[in-house]
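REQUEST ID: PR-0412
SUBMITTED BY: lab tech R.K.
PRIORITY: routine
TASK: structure prediction, single protein chain
INPUT:
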Amino acid sequence: MKYRKLGNSDLEVSEIALGSWLTYGVGVERDKAQACVDRAFELGINFIDTANVYGRGAAESFLGEALAQRPRDSYVLATKVFFPMSDADRGLSRVQIAKQIDASLTRLRTDHVDLYQCHRYDADTPLEETMEALSEVVRQGKARYIGFSEWSPQQIEAAFALPGVERFVSSQPQYSLLWRRPEQKVIPLSAQNGVSQIVWSPLAQGVLTGKYAPGAALPAQSRATSDSMGQMMSNWLRPEVLEAVQHLKPIAAEAGCTLAQFALAWVLREPNVASAIVGASRPEQLDDNAAASGLVIDPALFRQAEAVVAGLG
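STATUS: complete
OUTPUT:
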């Protein structure tokens, strides 16, 4: 496993991160989830990403149990705040950030997270209030660094322009061979300001593994067949997308790796990407994904793949 520095921080994170969206505490049985966490550490994955809203606290609670016996300095822990935790609790106000960080730390059974991220932008709260509240969390020692997820370039620039507040070190956008929008503005802007990308859905919800064949029945026990995990996949299950992905398989074979490894290596070719978040319901999925770290692939093969999927995002 290779490691990269996260923005202007002193955090060294594994190129592959273990995520918990739609899986741990919700869609995956506890023993299988524990096996995935244990395997991640065996593979050298040191970066764990979660959020308070995942299972309305269930993912954080599971991770609090799963990580309890491990030395706190043996992993980098990230969580997020913004989405509703109750009918009254949502957003990035000073009150909410103070309340939600304490709740997250209780569930995670730790006194601090390494990275506290705004899960989205809160247009109902002044940015100054949000940034001051996040800064207070850092100054209290409850988070070491702060980040954001899916903010617009204008919102990012506005945060950078505020004086006297903590600086973001990470951005968490959706990014994959099938979704390249961050390349236009977010990645260049981030690179100029000491912010790294931690990308979600680098395998397009599993579609870039190649296991979903056009016109075929969905594989049994796959994410797409799960009531709790499959709702977000419709865009990537379009026939034209699945057809194009099948044409990527021989390119990955020429590169000497699986399609999933190829897709992850494509994301990691971008220097501003510090880590790619993967989800896993079985430990062997992590074996395949972790092998993408450090892969050296001919850029010409990446260009061929980009041409195959051009226009599908």
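NOTES: Residues 133 and 227 are 36 Å apart (CA to CA).
REVIEWED BY: pending
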